[in-house]
Recover the amino acids of this structure.
């Protein structure tokens, strides 16, 4: 409870800092603004490389005897072999400038070759002599020889020289899995330790000096203290004997860097506009003279041809002027949820505790994109997660909080959740249109994340390849899609039975192709499943375990109001367990409850499913949505929810109806159920990704959600959310549960 309280307080503090007027831009739909720049400005996007060296801070060197041993005399030496090594990598960031003060955000990824495994054969301590053991050996897998970070920067500029301090969240530095072997000890002497873990916050802090070499290039000298925290590993022989290894992963890093600095886009656009105006004025003069001459020689036909050419040139210049070269945006969302005591006949490991509970968590992202060539751009999204979903993200099949990472930790941690390439190919002759491709009702957010503004052909093909989330492309709905700004419940924002490929955070590697025509769009994609169902690691071998998905979208008008209907089908092809096999194995061996995670029953299977998704505008201020989905309930949950069939419907209404244009209200209902084999499985006490009460009195789960979103100022929203869950986890013996939530969302 102590850690949960700390996480709650830290989450709210973190979110409020981001939501303050000093950090939330006044116009979140545009690239971050800045004051009138001096002759040279540090403002804008920069991309660069770095190289240098690191010096480790030594620690560890001992395997401490734990469970099964009687004293510290059985401790083992494990020499620390970390040593100085090279460091190199790349960085990307954005700076703002106010007078001489420069502040910004930067993320980087770097190789850091300092970690060396404790391997070799060593003499055993004398305490092992009576056991006939004279030596032991250590082997180890590769370490996490890298560090990544997302850091704030604050500096003071002396024209083209910048002195700055920097600090933020870091990642990496884990120690690889390891084997410990006592020779001549048989099975008792075989110990294994998985990859190390650390529950503390990893961070990087330092400073540097940067010198502008010309208008675009700058060089820097930077020092960082990188603390990747205490790495813990437990060696276990499965006979109640254990050793504990604790090693710190800390280093001093000194490096040189070279950056390319893009022009601030508002300034660049202003210059472009000025140049266009000059060109236009000159062109007018030239055209006037040309028209006069051609009027004498060729008459009206020549004039019309020249005017057409001038119009075409002007359109090309306008398109180029409006086209973004890069984008840089960010968001942070903090959610506090809780519920009072509710009735429950029994409780399992994956249940909401019946005595009441409150939890808080936050997710913060940067969205960076750079144009590569015509129609192509590359995007990077680092993310910082902190805190917990309600009850650590278990307890309901239609889980109550999609805005917070399922992998909860009290300390903040970072990951690169998305990095992908997108290529837009215009189909010849297509009409040019502005296309924000809004993915939720909140157009401010969706029109700026992972998209460069500009004009594209109305008819076009779009290829997206890399690491991203399947719902980034599929199962979109304007009125129910984004848990950071709209509904929070999983079952409202997606086809709940759509068991799509994802790691524990909801992302995976894959490729998607979209073909957009006048009134329809066809989509298809292939994505890697997780290595084991609902696991944190994505299948490393392409095509060994994967999901195929296809979607057809039709756009129409109903009573002069626009609408969209989508049909989706998917197939998960991987090593999955049949639920009935888990039940049969439990009866055969007498080991209850049944467990789908038993590796002996996982075989190559294909799990299929599909659904229908409807969005319908009823008026300019009111929208309606409906989703219906089913999947093959004979198999375990692959990567998403514990639902085999679902129906959700609801509405959103804009605040213009009551005089607050940027406020919003929403209401939705979700009805979901399970297939027969899964009812039996949970009835015998089985658990899955989100649910497992230790028993089951089956009844379909029902959820009612409503929210009111209050616009505090541009870019800052406060939402009150309420959810009523009937038969939580499809169990009539528990609930109903009243879940109250408060969400703070800020963006720039």
């Amino acid at each position: 409870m102590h850690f949960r309280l700390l996480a709650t307080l830290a989450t709210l503090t973190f979110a409020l800092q981001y939501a303050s007027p000093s950090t939330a831009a006044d116009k979140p739909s545009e690239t971050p603004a800045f004051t009138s720049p001096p002759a040279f400005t540090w403002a804008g996007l920069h991309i660069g490389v770095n190289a240098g060296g690191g010096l480790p801070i030594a620690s560890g060197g001992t395997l401490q005897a734990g469970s099964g041993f009687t004293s510290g005399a059985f401790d083992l030496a494990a020499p620390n072999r970390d040593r100085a090594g090279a460091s190199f990598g790349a960085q990307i960031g954005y700076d703002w400038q106010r007078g001489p003060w420069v502040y910004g955000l930067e993320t980087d990824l770097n190789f850091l070759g300092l970690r060396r495994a404790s391997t070799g054969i060593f003499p055993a301590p004398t305490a092992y002599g009576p056991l006939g053991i004279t030596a032991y050996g250590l082997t180890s897998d590769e370490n996490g020889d890298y560090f990544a970070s997302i850091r704030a920067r604050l500096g003071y500029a002396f024209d083209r020289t910048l002195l700055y301090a920097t600090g933020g969240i870091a990642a990496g530095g884990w120690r690889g899995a390891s084997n410990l072997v006592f020779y001549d000890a048989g099975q008792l002497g075989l110990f294994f330790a998985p990859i190390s873990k650390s529950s503390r916050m990893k961070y990087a802090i330092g400073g540097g000096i940067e010198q502008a070499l010309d208008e675009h290039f700058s060089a820097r000298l930077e020092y960082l203290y990188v603390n990747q925290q205490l790495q813990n590993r437990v060696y276990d022989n499965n006979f109640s004997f254990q050793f504990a290894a604790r090693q710190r992963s800390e280093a001093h890093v000194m490096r040189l860097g070279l950056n390319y600095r893009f022009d601030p886009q508002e300034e660049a656009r202003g210059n472009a506009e000025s140049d266009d105006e000059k060109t236009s004025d000159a062109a007018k003069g030239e055209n006037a003279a040309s028209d006069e001459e051609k009027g004498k020689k060729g008459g009206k036909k020549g004039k019309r041809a020249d005017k057409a050419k001038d119009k075409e040139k002007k359109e090309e210049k306008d398109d180029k002027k409006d086209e973004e070269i890069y984008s840089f945006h960010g968001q942070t969302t903090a959610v506090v949820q809780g519920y009072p005591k509710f009735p429950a006949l029994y409780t399992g490991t994956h249940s909401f505790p019946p005595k009441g509970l409150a939890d808080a968590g936050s997710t913060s992202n940067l969205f960076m994109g750079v144009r590569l060539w015509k129609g192509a751009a590359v995007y990077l999204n680092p993310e910082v997660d902190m805190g917990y979903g309600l009850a650590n993200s278990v307890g309901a099949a239609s889980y109550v909080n999609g805005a917070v990472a399922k992998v909860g930790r009290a300390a903040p941690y970072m990951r690169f959740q998305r990095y992908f390439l997108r290529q837009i190919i215009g189909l010849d002759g297509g009409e040019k249109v502005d296309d924000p491709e809004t993915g939720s009702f909140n157009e401010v957010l969706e029109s700026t994340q992972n998209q460069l503004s500009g004009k594209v052909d109305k008819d076009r093909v779009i290829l997206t390849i890399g690491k991203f989330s399947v719902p980034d492309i599929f199962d979109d709905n304007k009125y129910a899609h984004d848990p950071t700004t709209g509904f929070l419940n999983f079952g409202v924002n997606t086809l709940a039975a759509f068991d799509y490929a994802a790691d524990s955070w909801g992302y995976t590697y894959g490729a998607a192709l979209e073909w957009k025509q006048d009134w329809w769009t066809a989509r298809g994609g292939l994505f890697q499943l997780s290595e084991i169902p609902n696991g944190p690691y994505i299948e490393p071998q392409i095509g060994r375990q994967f999901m195929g998905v296809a979607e057809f979208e039709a756009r129409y008008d109903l009573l002069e109001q626009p609408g969209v209907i989508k049909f989706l089908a998917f197939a998960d092809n991987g090593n999955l367990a049949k639920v009935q096999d888990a039940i049969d194995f439990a009866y055969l061996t007498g080991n209850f409850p049944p467990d789908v995670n038993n590796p002996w029953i996982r075989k190559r299977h294909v799990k299929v499913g599909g659904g229908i998704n409807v969005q319908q505008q009823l008026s300019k201020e009111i929208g309606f949505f409906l989703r219906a989905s089913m999947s093959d309930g004979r198999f375990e949950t692959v990567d998403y929810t514990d639902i085999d069939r679902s129906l959700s419907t609801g509405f959103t209404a804009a605040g213009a109806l009551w005089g607050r244009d940027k406020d919003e209200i929403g209401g939705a209902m979700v009805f979901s159920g399970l297939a027969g084999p899964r009812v039996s499985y949970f009835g015998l006490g089985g658990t899955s990704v989100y649910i497992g009460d230790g028993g089951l009195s089956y009844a379909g789960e029902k959820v009612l959600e409503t929210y009111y979103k209050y616009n505090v100022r541009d870019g800052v929203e406060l939402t009150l959310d309420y959810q009523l869950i009937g038969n939580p986890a499809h169990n009539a013996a528990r609930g109903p549960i009243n879940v109250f939530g408060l969400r703070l969302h800020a963006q720039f």
